[in-house]
Design goal:
It catalyses: riboflavin(in) = riboflavin(out). It comes from Cirrhinus molitorella. It is found in: Cell membrane. There is one protein chain. This protein has 15 helices and 6 strands. By secondary structure, the chain is mostly helical. Strands 1-2 form a two-stranded antiparallel ribbon. Helix 2 runs antiparallel to helix 10 and helix 14 packs antiparallel against helix 15. The two termini are about 30 Å apart.
């Protein structure tokens, strides 16, 4: 029982490192945006950068398709997690740095580092999950819960940090420091201006926290590979090294074609556990593509504009609660698995 609990904990911690940097970046934007020249355009830029980073998982997928067995997934995971630790660490030091581009200040270091952490997070989608198939099926749901927590935990830390906290103060309180240079009309100023309260800790400290979470992910991955208790939880007692895609090819379930090769293949497709027509399969994938596009690109890119009229607090809470929804859904599915 203790072994099983240990493996569950490690699987959850491993899953938490999958999207922690990008999810953590979204909830930190209310503090980052006022200090970078891109301003509220930054969320749109980030959405484009994240999509460009999908070239990395595309490369991994093509390697599995055309050169099966040549790509060692364990080595790839070590590389991307280590690379993610370095990129997160550099974010803490260089996120506010700017570079002159055609006479205009641009956050080139920030954009470049966001691209790097996007490569790490996007590639985790096609490497972490195949690695988890080496363990028993019950640990896969724990991994998904951990993956959902990769958005929830940074959001909770951001709430403790005080992201987006603002108060309105009288302008005279600000002008009072320059009273000797004010005329009589300016001394009588009586209108409210927004004043952003300092956060409980800095953006730099927040990025150090994300770096620490990536380190925890690396440690969990090491233990999943080499801890004797975890080794006993593998169905075939494999050592965790090598390409899981090539190993799965030897299984009987993978020897069966996904699509029927008989005459009925023109009408029906084996999809999951039931029989679906080609139109139903197409419908499922269209809905999946639409939901994914909204979740990962469409809504985050316009969220700053839709929430800005209601203030930074509204934007902060909308981004936070969006990250809360994922682990709740995974937690429910652990007890309600009927499809």
């Amino acid at each position: 029982m203790a072994m099983s609990i240990l493996t569950h904990v490690l699987a959850g911690l491993f899953g938490m490192g999958s999207w922690v940097t990008i999810c953590g970046l979204w909830v930190e934007l209310p503090l980052i945006v006022p200090q970078v020249p891109e301003g509220w355009y930054l969320p749109s830029y980030i959405s484009v950068i994240v999509q460009l980073a999908n070239i990395a998982p595309l490369f991994v997928t093509l390697m599995h398709r055309f050169r099966p067995g040549k790509l060692n997934e364990t080595a790839v995971i070590y590389f991307i997690v280590g690379f993610g630790i370095l990129a997160s660490l550099f974010l803490a030091f260089f996120w506010s740095e700017t570079v002159m581009v055609q006479g205009v200040k641009r956050s080139v270091p920030l954009m470049l580092l966001i691209f790097f952490i996007s490569i790490v997070d996007c590639t985790s989608s096609v490497t972490f999950l195949p690695f988890m198939t080496q363990l028993k099926a019950e640990y896969l749901m724990t991994y998904y819960v951990g993956e959902g927590l990769s958005g929830l935990v940074p959001a909770l830390v951001a709430m403790v940090q005080g992201v987006g906290v603002m108060e309105c103060i009288n302008a005279s309180q600000i002008l009072r420091f320059n009273e000797t240079h004010l005329n009589s009309s300016e001394r009588d100023t009586n209108y409210l201006v927004p004043h952003y309260q300092p956060a409980n800790f800095s953006v730099e400290a927040y990025f150090f926290f994300l770096t620490a979470m990536m380190v925890v992910c690396l440690v969990a991955f090491l233990l999943l590979n080499y801890h004797p208790a975890v080794a006993r939880e593998r169905p075939n007692n494999t050592n965790g090294n090598g390409d899981s895609i090539s190993r799965l090819k030897n299984k009987k379930s993978e020897q069966k074609p996904m699509m029927r090769s008989q005459k009925s293949s023109q009408k029906f497709s084996m999809f999951g556990t039931g029989m679906y027509t080609w139109m139903q399969v197409l419908y499922i994938y269209v809905i999946l593509a639409w939901v994914t596009a909204l979740t990962n690109t469409g809504l985050p890119s316009v969220q700053s504009y839709s929430c800005l009229p209601y203030g930074d607090q509204a934007y902060h809470w909308s981004a936070t609660m969006a990250n809360v929804a994922n682990p709740i859904a995974c937690f429910i599915s652990m007890f309600y698995t009927q499809r």
